[in-house]
Amino acid sequence: MENNHWWNKSVVYQIYPKSFQDTNHDGVGDLRGIIDRLDYIKKLGADVIWLNPIYESPQVDNGYDISNYEAINPTLGNMDDFQELIDGIHERGMKLVMDLVVNHTSDQHNWFKESRKGKDNPYRDYYIWRDGKDGKEPNNWGSYFSGAAWKYDDESGQYYLHLFAPEQPDLNWENPQVRHSVYDMMNWWAAKGVDGFRMDVINLISKPDGLPDAKKSGDEKYANVEPLVSNGHRIHEFLQEMNKNVMSKHKMVTVGETPGATPKDAEKYASLDNKELNMIFQFEHMGLDSNPNPALGKWDDRKTSLKDLRANLTKWQEKLYGKAWNSLYWNNHDQPRVVSRFGNDQTEDYRVKSAKMLATMTHMMQGTPYIYEGEEIGMTNAYFPKLEDYVDLESINAYHQLVDDQHLLDGKTMMKYIAIHSRDNARTPMQWDDSKYAGFSDHTPWEKVNPNYKQINVKNALADKNSIFYYYQKLIELRHTMPVITNGKYALVPGNDDDEQIFAYTRQDDDTTLLVILNYTDETVNRHYDVPADAKLLISNYEDDQNDTIRPYEAKVYQY
Ligand code: TEU
Ligand code: CA
């Protein structure tokens, strides 16, 4: 099966606008900052830029609470800046993907302001309102950001649903007016030249009929809604309708953010006939280091074993082959930094080696790779020690719920977990150089700079031909030039299934084989692989090749 859409060979660079580059001295990144850095992204070789939400928003959840879908957040710039940005991207032969957040709006959106006025308001049915049950919430659903997923509204005497913060009320997708308002808005952006959308929690939009209680599995106060609400009964109908009304009318790429999606779900969402989306972000590999106690969710300090990671990535490669298209990612604005999480940030040598090894792991697989700002220079977790250092509501709420309210963890343990897993680890300002505030701004940034910016920054990376940056640049170039990376069949090297140190797989098409060998550990390992005498070493993170001796975090790819 030949995959020959433009996005099959593309690499996406994700920008978190608030943290990328400030130009007007207020400590917040802005659109003009992105314009100034387009040549940098082009130099890396990325084909597509995905921007986290830049719309008008009270910023309760950093722009994922949108109060006007067709206006730019004034802190970030205005529509003229946006036009200049999209022109600049297109002039450089790149494309722009925007964030589409339509599971919910801000409570400051006009639709919600109208909706909460009362039961007779024409916008009432744009959201999900219910009466309470026995003086309590309508059901036991918990919010992703702690507490109940319902908020009582005094003014109109009912509860409304919010799967995320109370300031993020869920839209009612059962209402065709809601759906068509969204499609119109999408077409409005497409007319401005936008090349695609990343769709926020798009598989949560179809709620189960009757909104029944969700299952609790331990001592959690409110139930985790994800198993019940994700991939709901009308989701494919909604996405096909959206596709007909929007995607089919433009040349665009779409990626759905789909927590709780399995390969079976992906076969429908991202099937090669493109009736719904082009690909999805699945979360299974992001959950391998979660706490076994469901009440604690992701808050833990365990490390993902190679066995679990390999089994998971292999499953996605094999199950989607010839049927659907994968996205490939380690990082985004919600995840800790990959080199700290799956690699090793304890010494400079290991940081650089393990960052390259992990990049090799995903960039040699089938799918569209996503690089999150700073990943290409090996930015690490910030590990801030105090709760006051954190900005993200998810971490702060979780601390209060698990430590103060439920007493499931002591404060010290929770701070250790937050230092490892907080979303703020991804949101510290981009490290451009070693000047004060890392060249991000000359004003105190909205979120603290990672103290290691003097050593880890773009300026240093560009000056060192062995840097992580140039390694990513080479990986991207290989994807652009070698069809086997796009279309070759994936297979584990026989016998590799249980190896706790080495991950070895091949990609193969009619005339080329790639053998990828990766040491996931800080130990030197001896393994023999049959490599033909005429094989060429395509890329590696060591200066030389010692054949069966595979050094700490070594990555090598043979071509034959
Ligand atoms: O994230 C959805 C989502 O699944 C997250 O709750 C995720 O589980 C969590 O962040 C992991 O720590 C999307 C956006 O990417 C996120 O930034 C938003 O806060 C959220 O939706 C609500 O819009
Ligand atoms: Ca600014």
UniProtKB/TrEMBL annotation:
Annotated keywords: Glycosidase, Hydrolase
Keyword Hydrolase found: yes
Limits of the Glycosyl hydrolase family 13 catalytic domain: 14-427
Tagged with keyword Hydrolase: yes
Coiled coil: none
Highest taxon of source: Bacteria
SUPFAM superfamilies the UniProt entry points to: (Trans)glycosidases, Glycosyl hydrolase domain
InterPro entries: GH, GH13_cat_dom, Glyco_hydro_b, O16G_dom_2
Gene3D superfamilies: Glycosidases (3.20.20.80), Golgi alpha-mannosidase II (2.60.40.1180), Oligo-1,6-glucosidase, Domain 2 (3.90.400.10)
Database matches in Pfam families: Alpha-amylase
Similarity annotation: Belongs to the glycosyl hydrolase 13 family.
PANTHER family per the UniProt record, alphabetical: ALPHA-AMYLASE FAMILY MEMBER, OLIGO-1,6-GLUCOSIDASE 1
Official protein name in the record: Oligo-1,6-glucosidase
Organism: Limosilactobacillus caviae
